[in-house]
Amino acid sequence: MKNPKEVNDFIHFASEPAVAYLAAFQMTPGDTGLSVVHYARAGIKTGYLLYLGDILSLSLSDLSRLLHVSLRTLQRYGPDFILDADASSKVIQLNMLQTKGLEVFGHQQKFNQWLRHALPELEGMAPLDVLDTPFGYQIVHQILGRIEHGIFA
């Protein structure tokens, strides 16, 4: 588990506040989604990834698996290191999933627990286990949508 001091240190080292990222990734009515493409191309700082990982109670090992980056490489990145477009896209997807999960479950800890809970819809895997591909994110979003509308099967 992470030391809270370490997480806070990463947040302070990131030059943009996390709130700016959170606001930028929220789609508004009429938004074409190109703002998200621009953010992915420009790159997301590792400090924000670590902040998001802390919110979701994800270890560095979890984050490295989701980004398809070795644990050692991720450990070497400083908080101001800018991730490439592919990794940044995955961070944005994770952020959007976190936002949706919080809307559906109403409490971050409940959503974090659900991410680790095996689901029949995922052939007994936990949602976190399928988030290493874009298709996994789509499936998990669909499941969250069904939960949001009261359709559990």
What features would you describe in this structure?
The chain has 153 residues and is mainly α. It has one domain (4-148). The chain has helices at 4-13, 18-24, 34-42, 46-55, 60-67, 71-76, 85-105, 108-115, 134-148. The longest helix has 21 residues, at 85-105. It is globular. Mean pLDDT is 85; it is low at 1-20.
Describe this protein with a few key phrases.
9 helices; mainly alpha; 153 residues
- Average pLDDT figure: 85
Q: What is the number of helical segments per DSSP (H or I, 4+ residues)?
A: 9
Give the distance, in angstroms, between the N- and C-terminal Cα atoms.
Answer: 34 Å
Elements, N to C (H/E): HHHHHHHHH
- The helix content is 55-70%
State the domain count. Answer: 1
Quick one: biggest sheet? Answer: none
Q: Give the total of beta strands.
A: 0
**Would you identify the regions where 5 or more consecutive residues have pLDDT less than 50?**
1-20
SS class? mainly alpha
SS strand fraction? under 5%
What is the overall silhouette? globular
The Rg value, from CA coordinates, equals: 15 Å
Topology at a glance:
Elements: H1 4-13, H2 18-24, H3 34-42, H4 46-55, H5 60-67, H6 71-76, H7 85-105, H8 108-115, H9 134-148
What is this structure, in a nutshell?
By secondary structure, this protein is mainly α.
